[in-house]
Each structure stands twice: as C-alpha cells, then as structure tokens.
Amino acid sequence: MRPPVTVRRARPEDASEMARVIVRSWRETYRGVVPDDVLDDPGFESARERFWTAALTDERYRRNRIAVAERGGEVIGVAMSGPVDDPALEWDHHLYVLYVVAAEHGSGAGLALLEAVVRPDEDVALWVADPNPRAQAFYRKHGFVADGAVQVDDGVRDIRMLRLSADRRRA
Fold first, then answer.
1. Per-residue pLDDT tens for 51-80?
2. For a surface tag, which of 1, 10, 35, 116 has the fewest beta carbons within 10 Å of its beta carbon?
3. SS3 for 122?
4. Cβ atoms of residues 18 and 48 within 8 Å
5. What's the pTM value of the predicted model, to 2 decimals?
C-alpha cells in the first residue's frame, strides 16, 4: 500500500525538489505547446530552484502562500498563491502555480494543494495554458470559470479563469 499524500507549507530546503517537480510537470504537460528549447534547456531546473529559493526566503513574497504535496517524503506537487494589489480587479487573490507530476494526477494532491493556498472566502484568478484540457477541467470542477481574457506569452496561449468566493457565488 502506498503512503498517503500529505500537504504542508513549503520550506527553503524544499527549493530543489520543488524545481524538479516544476520541470518534470512542464515537460509532461507542455511538450508540443512550449518550445522544446525551453523545456530541454539544461539551465531550466537551476533557474526554477533559484526562483523557489527566492520565493521562500525573499521579503517580496512574504504574503504568498506556498505549499508542497508529498507522498512518502517525496515532493510530488507544488502550489503558490498571492494577493493582488489592484483594487480595480474583481478578485483579490491569484493562483500563480499548481503542478502535480503526471503519475499523481487523480490522487487528490491537486485539490489538497489548491485548498492549502486558496481559501473559500477569496475571489481568485489564474491563468491556464490553452490547450490544457485536464487542468481546465480540474479548475472548472472546483468552481473556476473562464472569463474570456486571453494572453499569449512566449507563443503560449493562456486563458484566465476566475472563482468568486463561496459567499459571492451564493449571492
């Protein structure tokens, strides 16, 4: 029997494992969407490790929530959200990162990570690659709706999805 998935707050010493998960997830998810030279860049993992080290130690990120999912002590997923400082926006929180390695899809790790970094009383936005039908279905299942906004960054098309707080959805 496999050990259960657990989710906890990320720590600075997790940065290298978080980078490994992000790079593996990107390669599993975005091959054919993101240029191969990006996915296969030998410096990709070290750049991600530098980012996560900063995100977990730098004062600029102090208001963000960062979590990892583990199974048997191995990091299998990563999530990060943070506040939005523009009062003109309809939402007050942004889900920046949520990745789970493909072997753990359907394990509950994604939902556990989402719940660890986003509260039900927050209005939340995120950008998700299009096409990425699995991720889009996951977000729809958990209350997110595409709002029609699209951005293209480095040739990758993203759609924005929003989830209003539980109170606003009932109103």
1. 999 999 999 999 999 999 999 999 999 999
2. 1
3. coil
4. yes
5. 0.94
